[in-house]
Amino acid sequence: MSSIKHMVIFKLHSGKENAETESFLQESKEELSAIPGVEQFEVFRQVSGKNEYDYGFSMLFANQQVYDAYNNHPVHIKYVEERWNKKVSRFQEIDLVSV
């Protein structure tokens, strides 16, 4: 099976380009990229006016089993409950494999 590119674009309650937002982005990168199996974690800032989202995360997983382990990892579950659900106002996820 092919590797999985997991991406999420989002908008924060705190808005754009301020200390609270920058802290969220940095802390998210540190927490999520440390979970076993996460490869090529990247943080993006949206520059197009074609959609309403401001930021994005992208990461790569070797296969579905590694991706499932990430989703069920205690650090990820705690992150979603304590940080993501409180700070993110809107988001969209996409998971892709090469064809």
Account of the protein in words:
It is a single chain. With 99 residues, this protein is an alpha+beta fold. It is built from 3 helices and 4 strands, in the order βαββααβ. The chain has helices at residues 19-33, 64-72, 74-87, and strands at residues 4-12, 39-45, 55-61, 88-97. It has a 4-stranded antiparallel β-sheet. α1 runs antiparallel to α3. The longest helix has 15 residues, at 19-33. The protein is globular.
* Low-confidence segments: none
Can you list the strand order of the major beta sheet? 2-3-1-4
Annotation, overall tally of beta strands: 4
> What is the alpha-carbon Rg in Å?
13 Å
Shape: globular
Structural class assignment: alpha+beta
Specify the number of helices. 3
In N-to-C order, the SSE pattern is: EHEEHHE
Distance between the ends: 11 Å
Please give the share of residues in helix.
25-40%
The major sheet is characterized as: 4 strands, antiparallel
- Strand residue content: 25-35%
Average the pLDDT over all residues and give the rounded result.
Answer: 96
Task: State the main characteristics.
single chain; alpha+beta; four-stranded antiparallel sheet; 3 helices; 38% helix
